[in-house]
Amino acid sequence: MTLTKESFHGALPPASEVTKADMDSTREKEEALLQSVTTSGAVVPRKRAVGRLVMHSMAMFGREFCYAVEAAFVTPVLLSVGLPKNLYSLVWLISPILGFVLQPVVGSASDHCTCSWGRRRPYILGLGIIMLLGMALYLNGDVMISAFIGERDNRRTWAIVITMLGVVLFDFAADFIDGPIKAYLFDVCSHQDKEKGLHYHALFTGLGGALGYLTGAMDWGQTVLGYSLASEFQVIFFFAALVFLVCLTVHLHSIPEVPLRYKNEETKILLEVTESYKYSSIEEEIKNGYLKSTCTEIKAAAKPGKCAVMSHTEDQRRMTLKSLLKTLLSMPSHYRYLCVSHLFGWMAFLSNMLFFTDFMGQVVYQGSPYAPHNSTLYLTYKTGVEVGCWGLCINAISSSAYSYLQKILLPYIGLKGLYFIGYLLFGLGTGLIGLFPNVYSTLALCSLFGVMSSTLYTVPFHLIAEYHREEESLKLQDGEQAGEHGRGKGIDCAALTCMVQLAQIILGVGLGLLVSVAGSAVTVISASTVALIGCCFVAFCVRYVE
Description:
Blueprint: H1 5-11, H2 23-35, H3 50-80, H4 88-111, H5 121-148, H6 152-176, H7 178-188, H8 191-217, H9 224-228, H10 232-252, H11 260-276, H12 280-287, H13 292-302, H14 312-318, H15 321-329, H16 333-353, H17 356-364, H18 376-435, H19 439-445, H20 447-478, H21 489-518, H22 521-540
Helix pairs in contact: 3-6, 3-8, 3-10, 4-6, 4-21, 5-6, 5-10, 7-21, 8-18, 8-20, 11-13, 16-18, 16-20, 16-21, 16-22, 17-18, 18-19, 18-20, 18-22, 20-21
């Protein structure tokens, strides 16, 4: 919400019309106006309509829809272009390594972005375009290369290169985009709306995943689009790109941002208007020390030499990697503990999800992916993989349902209870699946995956919002000036999201070796063990704001 001089003058009555009888009422209005200014020089966001929060959550719907499509088709695509097995780990490691290194840099950059469109939306748009490009390359790379290269060997080599590039770009952007989306929500919403927004994010994440898995499960080869386009992969790309473009457009037009460069101008306007309507009662309050800290902050922000927005030189200095690492290492201990608990959660969740369909095919259905393609063992394995996809669909639906249930449980058990229950149920569920691999019990316990998914997408970011709210409240009480806080919401959300990439790196290096030695059963046992360790960490190490 951008403030103008006219909006302030329209909100305050002319001094000539103020009488002694309504002096108290005028003072209360003016105090409320002053108290709406935070220590960053920005105005406290107004309450957002539910429709706006739903529009904001559409980005998560589109992102998860595309994620589900990738989960269903990336392995068949890689196999179809002839990717050697020794390159599989390379495909899954490049993206998280890039994300882990670059995510904090982009988070810090978005905190200090002065684009007239806002701080977060330019990055969200850019990452969305990279997602579409990556998806186009890995789903259509073989067809594209076939149109330009005729020689078989060269065509195969370039098809592998283009497909790998597409997978890396898509994973990189899809993992990356979550941080700016969360920071965007925190910037434009009040504390109560942040809670609602995170729940809507989890709800639409589950719905998008469910619809994506269902889209992947359908046989598009026998439809009109299947006959019109070159392959089933192109049909899937058409639907995924359409859904994502619509969702991204709706998200970017959901809630306007206040550009960073305008925030200092708003505080100047507020100062001018406040000074032009000084009543004796307010002046006395200021002389007595009441509202002194707030007025000091406003005046400091209004002075060009002490602007709350960093100068260009300071911005460049802060953006150096050395300074960025120093900022991350100087994070308070409760932020670091939250990041570690988030790492445990994603390690447990991904170790189960990345190999779940293979676990269903090999352990539950007793099939083999290495048997001849016309053999009973291979067909049994393929059936198990298809059933595993339905299990992932159950996970997505339960994630949406639990995100709604979280809103009901939160007043009773708090964030600590939600965090603990999410890890505990997932740890117990995966443990039971590993010990008793049965088709029906496994599908039923897939609903507990959704509990974990919803927990990971909401509770840690909710805690980040609580930490920032507490810090801003303490700074307001202490009368500190704006700009003294070295980190913004963007870099904190980026640090949290980095744990997803770090979990992928750890699993890519370690879990693949375990699977090759002990088989797919080790994945669910590992997931259960890590989740239960994380459960203890959540209970005893993570700090919760009262």
